[in-house]
Amino acid sequence: MPDYKYSTLAVHAGQYPDPLTGAVNVPVYLSSTFELTGIGTDKGWDYSRAGNPTRDRLEEALAALEGGTSGHAFASGMAAIYALVATLHTGDHVICSHNVYGGTQRLFNLVVRNYSIAIEYVDTGDLKAVEAAIKPNTKLIHIETPTNPIMSLTDIAAVSEIAHAHGVEVSVDNTFMSPVLQSPLGLGADIVMHSTTKFLNGHSDGLGGAQGAVSAGAEGGGRNSFALRVLPGAARHQDAAAAHEGA
Known about the structure:
By secondary structure, the protein is an alpha/beta fold. It has one domain: Aspartate Aminotransferase, domain 2 (3-Layer(aba) Sandwich), CATH 3.40.640. The chain is built from nine helices and nine strands. It has helices at residues 6-12, 53-66, 77-86, 102-110, 127-133, 156-165, 178-181, 219-230, 237-246, and strands spanning 36-38, 41-42, 70-74, 93-97, 118-122, 138-144, 169-173, 191-194, 209-213. A seven-stranded mixed sheet has the order 3-9-8-7-6-4-5, sandwiched between helices. Strands 1-2 form a two-stranded antiparallel sheet. It is globular. It starts with 5 loop residues before the first helix and ends with a helix. The mean pLDDT is 90.
């Protein structure tokens, strides 16, 4: 894609004529399955949970808007959060902003902790508290900034610097700011996620969630591609089209 200014990128990211028909709007491909061209070969898609042309365009747009090269569209923001922690292991430790969205807290407290994954809530606006909370088994620091609904703030760049010095990944829930106003990947985070239901969709006609990673070849990108294939929660075609139109 050309080196557009951001306002132009927001219009054109993932939005180009359909190669089959020339349609200028992204078609909604309702098919659940796609024709195989041979044993183990296809035209780019085989089953819509793993990939769908409509969802691909949204993922392409989200990656471009967030400044990454890996985008992953989920059925809801909570599905995106679940995929974030689904590949952690028993005994791992997660640091989380103490004022995160209530749904995130419920998932972490009532589900994730059942797998003997330790969740520690910290005021991530306090950099000394963040560094003090890091343990040898800490795998992830999850930030929400501004938080929903209290609007507490975290310095993403500073937390990322501290985390990376200890070999810890950083994820940021960027739902409230959107990529227009805040670029977590550009500030050093490894993974950015959204509830696309809110500002990215913008017109209250579709549920969705998303994650973006720094690079398509990064561990985070591959992990999320795997999660879309094996976990429930891939974005529906219609919801992906609605979110892409809004974004």
